[in-house]
Every structure is written in C-alpha cells, then in structure tokens.
Amino acid sequence: MKILIIEDEKLLADSIKTLLLNKGFEVEVAYDGETGTEYAELGIYDLLILDVMMPKMNGYEVARKVRSQKCGTPILMLTAKSSVEDRITGLNAGADYYLTKPFDTRELLACINALLRRQGTQVNEVTYGNTSLDLSSGILICGTNSVRLSAKEFDIMRFLLQSGSRNLSKEVILARVWGYDSDAVENHVEVYVGFLRKKLASIGSNIRIEAIRKMGYHLEVEG
Questions:
Q1: Residue 1 reports pLDDT greater than 50
Q2: Rounded CA gap, 166 and 160, in Å?
Q3: Fewest CB atoms within 10 A around its CB: which of 41, 45, 107, 203?
Q4: 165-174 own/partner pairs: CB under 8 Å, 24+ apart
Q5: Nearest-angstrom CA–CA distance, 209 and 194
Q6: How much is the pLDDT for 120?
Q7: Alpha carbons 163 and 195: distance in angstroms, whole number
C-alpha cells in the first residue's frame, strides 16, 4: 500500500512517515499543497493524508482539485480546526475522514486501516476483457488458466487494469511501482511489460498491452 502525506509541518510529516514505514507501508511526502496536488493527481496512491493549513494551496483546495480530476483515492484530512463548520467544509471538499490535531498515533492508524479496508472490500479483483487479477493472491486468471505474478508484475498489471484504455507513461508507472526516490529507469518498465505480455499470452488472455511512442502503455481487447 502506497500512502502520500501532504503536510507542511516537516517534523510532523516525517514522524508520520516513520510510523507508517514501520507498519510496512510505502510512504512519500510533499511539504506544500501545490506539490502534493501534482503527486496526488498521478493516481498512484492508495491513501492521501492531507493537512488543511498549508502554503500555496490549502487542504480544502487540494481535495477539491484532486476530486475534480476524478481521483477516488481516500483522503484523511488532518487539521487543528475542530469546529463543525470546518469538518463540513473538509468533507464537502472531498475528504473521507477528518482527524483533529493533536491526535493519538493509535487513532491515526485506526483511521488509516479503516479507510484502506473500506477501499479493499469494494474490489477484490480487477477485470478487463476475459482476464481478471485477484488482488488478494496476485494471480492473473483467464477462464480455467491462471498464472502467479511477481510483486512488481502485480503492481504494474493492477495499475494497467485499473486504467484500462487510458495511457500510462513510463514515468508514472515508475513512480507508482518503484517510487520517486528509486534508481529504477524506464528500461525496468519495458522489461516487466515484456514479462506480463508473455504471461497474458500463456493463459490465453484477449487483452494486449499496447505501447504508444512517447505516451506509454494502455490495454486493448482483441476483437
């Protein structure tokens, strides 16, 4: 699970990051609303943790912008403002839950797990064409045929299936699967796409991973 923290208080942001890393999450941090929005709009995160009071763009503005881009990623909003009006503003902006500072780390983890569970119970598999990806086992299924994917293959295949016919650039796939701080290069994406094409063919899938020069990859269903 990949989480983005958008919080201008560096000490707080880094302490939340450390807490979540120790719980096994992948975590990235943006320290202002404008940068956080750019990251969030990539659609590569499973959860956004969003502060309200930030420079450049406040949390309400970030949430509205992210939602206007049809991004359904759960948003947990953090703020020192505790009035009912502030909570209503946050929820109306697109937040899924509103946590008031200061908060107990146990409460933060409970909120995060609840939002991720809610997201996970809605979708246990992703399907495109005649092929499904079981999200709990990492197995790609076509009829009676199936093949298990490696961790990186699973992440890329899931991202492609969720995006369908929408093009995903190599840069976006790198950020989603390897992370912004990774030394991985575009060739890594090409290699794993090659692996996935072979596995799709091996189970008789009717979906193809198509490449468009300078635009990336998308899926097509064979007629």
A1: yes
A2: 8
A3: 107
A4: 165/218, 165/219, 165/220, 166/218, 167/212, 167/215, 167/216, 167/217, 167/218, 168/216, 168/217, 168/218, 169/215, 169/216, 170/216, 170/217, 172/42, 172/44, 172/216, 173/216, 173/217
A5: 9
A6: 53
A7: 19
